[in-house]
Amino acid sequence: MHDIQQDLKTLPIDEAISHLKERFPEAVSNDTREGYGGVIVDKSQLLTVAQYARDQLGFDYLSSATAVDYLGEGNHSTDHLEMVYHAYRTTGGKALVFKAQTDRESATVPSLVSVWKGSDFQEREAFDLYGIKFEGHPNLKRILLWDGFEGFPMRKDWKEAYYEEEHKPYSSRWPGGHIHRSEERNIFGHNVKYPADIDLSRLTDLSEAKLYEGFGLGVDTTQVRDPNGMETDQLIINMGPHHPSTHGVFRMMVRIDGETVLDLQPVMGYLHRNHEQIGERNTYLQNIPFTDRLDYLSSMGNNHGYVMAVEQLMSLDRKYKAPTYRTEVLRVLMVELNRIVNHLWAIGFWLNDLGAFFTPVLYFVQERERILDFFEAVAGSRMMCNYMRFGGVFADLPERIHSTMNLMNDRVRDFDTMQFLTDMINERIPRTIDELDEFLTNNEILKSRSIGVGYLSREDAISYSVAGPVLRGSGVAYDVRRSDPYSIYPELDFDVAVRPEGDMYARYQVRLQEMRESVRILRQLLPRLEDTKGQPVSENNASYAGKVPVGESYGRIENGKGELGFYVVSAGDKKSTANPWRYHVRAPSFINLTPLGAMSQGGKIADIVAILGSIDIVLGETDR
Amino acid sequence: MIGSGFAKGMWVTLRHFINTYVDDVRYGFRKFSPNVNNFQDRQGPHGEGIFTVQYPDEKIAMAERFRFVPFLVVEDYDHPDRPGKDWCTSCGICAKVCPPQCIWIVRGEDPNGKPIPEPEAFFIDIDICMNCGYCAEFCPFDAIKMDHDYELASYDRTSSHIFDKPKLSKEFRYWKSIAPTRAVEEAQARGGWEHKDAQKAARRGGSSRDTAAAAVSAAAAAPEAVAEAPDNKEAKREEVRARRAAAEAPVAAAEPTSAAGSGEKPWTMAHDDMEKRKAAALARKAARAAKK
Questions:
Q1: Overall average pLDDT of the A442-464 stretch
Q2: Does the B68-178+228-255+268-291 domain belong in CATH 1.10.10?
Q3: Using one digit for the tens of pLDDT, what is the confidence trace for A258-312?
Q4: For residue B211, what pLDDT is reported?
């Protein structure tokens, strides 16, 4: 029996799907739409099938759960809402994609929180933006928008406040482009809907009261006793949103007993801009600079994930040419440099949170500055790189990193690009990493603050769908670069950094180790850069209005903060489309917050600041 | 031993402190001399210690590909054939590709209503512009380019942050001066320094103007010849400014003047803003020299 189970857990993805269909013949069917993959599961059986996929087939890691609104799509399907799940095995391999459909009016799907805890926030997001009700969800509330918000902004029939047209480019821009400011167009109140029972003057009171519901408000304090039997009181405090320790506008609602944290609930959405809706108005190409603004510390990685997702779709077209080898080398070069930037920043600010105030972070920022200079010379901008294109990159490395004097600026630099890069990779970056290691790894204060704090067990880490250093710090050797390889990673030699302890110190060590591995990768890239000199780097980017064949794709990469995925659907037309029908970001900063409450319980107030720092979030990505 | 990790960390901090001075000695205290460009050493991969840039006393010159709010390329004001002529043909590609849709173009028309390859008006809302560089990347005429001038802050965004054509237009030689390498590459792709349309006209009309690619290749061999030497740039700029003032009238007559260009719209900005900043930059430079 045991052997059969083991076999099931290593079945190749095609066989696993056929096995699932045999096991549940009436509930599971192939998704036969053109360009689509995976299976459609009848929603009444969804929970059973998911349970079976996790326990018997070994798909223990739910990467992404998101919704799609097929309203007026017409060509492939009738109007309905669809939940799309991507489940992976932590041992590696391709995704099990399964979908559950529901009509738009009742919009109910069973919740999968009992199977994968990581679907908690993602389902709340789908509830928030699509209005899908999840039966059995323990805490089904809005997550990114405020509680009094009316309507579901990701549905296709929703129009935003500055709504102009369904898709870009807008026809008012050319040829008769008489300019208007959008503020002038948008008379306040117009196009913004409020529910009938909301008193605008007391708006925040209503939503706040709802927020505290079931969070200890209204507890009979006379009944609360501390361990010594003394009558005591619990307190709800809000850390943030305007608190320097939260790395942005993020809020932690904490119920405390004295200094001890009893319960913690993250409150987010202060930076929410409906990024995905913007992405669906945009053309495919126009989305690339928008991805820069997600995790703005690692824009190269964001670009890479998105272009990979769209390239998967474009490759359905026979005329599509895959990126050249040099393109891939350049992409990996940029992404690995970006990973170092990200980890330097993450460790630096985590040390800030622990009280090593700004000395270490400035040492690391100094190194980051070099890398950003390089990005600026190559891509044109330090942080908003916008470097990658479909089938290529923006431009090859320049011969020299140089600047010319003009009236505005007179401090000039001039370096040979390859020399600069070689010096960086072989000398500066390793030196900084060693210094960082020497500086703080064995520091007694750091160790006593972080060892054993913010513990997340291996099983929980997988179940909560956390990714990146948080997952690997809990002993799961899961790295997308290895388990589902992309680009030229299969031919590169590197180790997956992993620590079994599951605490903050383990995450710190994983990040440190990962930077060393990145340097190792970068060293292997240098000869490849020399070898491929002169190869073309941008094959497909000549067109400013390229169309993408219909279908769905999920492009994912290992970004500094964890697995970053882009779920892109091209639909609405028979053959190809100019705008994505669905553009979803599987944001590691967002999903990694799911276990924050569990990790913080029993800790002290000062610890939760550091635990948040050890998860390493960027609010641009969390709130989208 | 307890405390050893702590002491080690302190030693790293001390080392950083010392290294800053070691670096000063290594580069002969050049950091402190205001007119020597020591940025090569300070900012290079071998520089140690602190390398803070004393903005705004010092400003790093931007790398060639640096992109900030775009500008429109117009023919040099002393161009013999077409002074001040827009390179833009109002094809609208930049407005279509622009991700935040911050470009508005009014296509030029002749009195009969037939489109002519010249924009009647051109606006960019710099509050909305996200500096992605797509407009420059996809422009088939090299007519819109990303600028290096990043100091656009102003006290009133409602009246001064919509750039119109006069504010956006910069001479072609400005582009050559901020991005010499790329200007040469683009000229090679175009087949000559001149605008594509001018080249076509020259071929048709058999003009004697040298637009051959060979000339560009020669220029590529000596890019310094393309970018003016920094020393006499100042004088040249003054000269150009004077000429520009003189040339303004005939140019305005030749072009259909846009309504927005005449300064009636509320967002038309103070035109001497740029001049003021240039003057301030020069003053700072002079002050540095004087200090020395």
A1: 88
A2: no
A3: 888 888 888 888 889 889 999 998 999 899 999 999 989 999 999 999 999 998 8
A4: 43
Cβ contacts of A386 on chain B, cutoff 8 Å: 132-133
Residue of A163, A173, A358 to mutate when probing chain B, most B C-beta within 10 A: A173
Option in A176, A366, A402 nearest B106 (CB):
A176
Q: What residues of chain A, 243 to 302, have a C-beta less than 8 Å from chain B?
A: 282, 285-290
Interchain CB contact of A480 with B (< 8 Å): no
Q: Which residues contact B176 (CB under 8 A, 6 or more apart)?
A: B183, B226, B227
Identify the domain containing residue A100 by its residue range: 2-135
Helix axes B180-190, B213-221, angle to 10 degrees: 160
Number of domains in chain A: 2
Computed from CA positions of residues A34, A36, A37, A38, in that sequence, does the dihedral angle turn out positive or negative?
Answer: negative
What is the dihedral sign for C-alpha A440, A441, A445, A449?
Answer: positive
Burial class of residue A105 in the structure, from the number of CB atoms within 10 Å of its CB (0-12 exposed, 13-18 middle, 19+ buried) = exposed
CB B132 within 8 Å of CB A293 = no
Q: Average pLDDT, whole number, for chain B?
A: 74
Q: Which tokens in the block code for residue A73?
A: 């799509």
B59, B103, B128 member nearest A409 (Cβ): B59
| Chain A 583-602, residues with CB within 8 Å of chain B CB atoms | none
* Interface with B, mutate which of A357, A358, A410, A434 (most B CBs under 10 A): A410
Backbone φ and ψ for A185, nearest 5 degrees, come out as -75, -30
Contacts of A508 in chain B (CB under 8 A): none
- B8–A439 CB contact, under 8 Å: yes
> Where is the domain boundary, A135, A160, A179?
A135
- Under an 8 A CB cutoff, do A177 and B123 touch? yes
Chain B positions touching A175 (Cβ under 8 A) are 90, 92, 105-107, 115
Contact of A420 with chain B, judged by CB distance below 8 Å, is answered with yes
Q: What integer pLDDT is reported at residue A303 of this predicted model?
A: 92
Q: Is the ipTM of this complex over 0.90?
A: no
Q: What is the CATH number of the domain that holds A7?
A: 3.30.460.80
Tokens of A132: 């899908």
pLDDT at A178 over 70: yes
User: Which of B11, B52, B64 to substitute to test the interface with A, most A CBs within 10 Å?
Assistant: B64
Inside any domain, residue A515: yes
A292 falls within a domain: no
Contact status of A393 with chain B (Cβ, < 8 Å)? no
Looking at the domain assignment, is residue A309 inside a domain?
Answer: no
- Greater confidence, A233 or B140? B140
What would the pLDDT profile of A597-617 be if each residue is shown by its tens digit? 888 888 888 888 889 989 888
- Dihedral angle over CA of A479, A485, A489, A494, nearest 10: 30
pTM of structure: 0.84
Q: Where in chain B are the domains? A: 4-42, 68-178+228-255+268-291
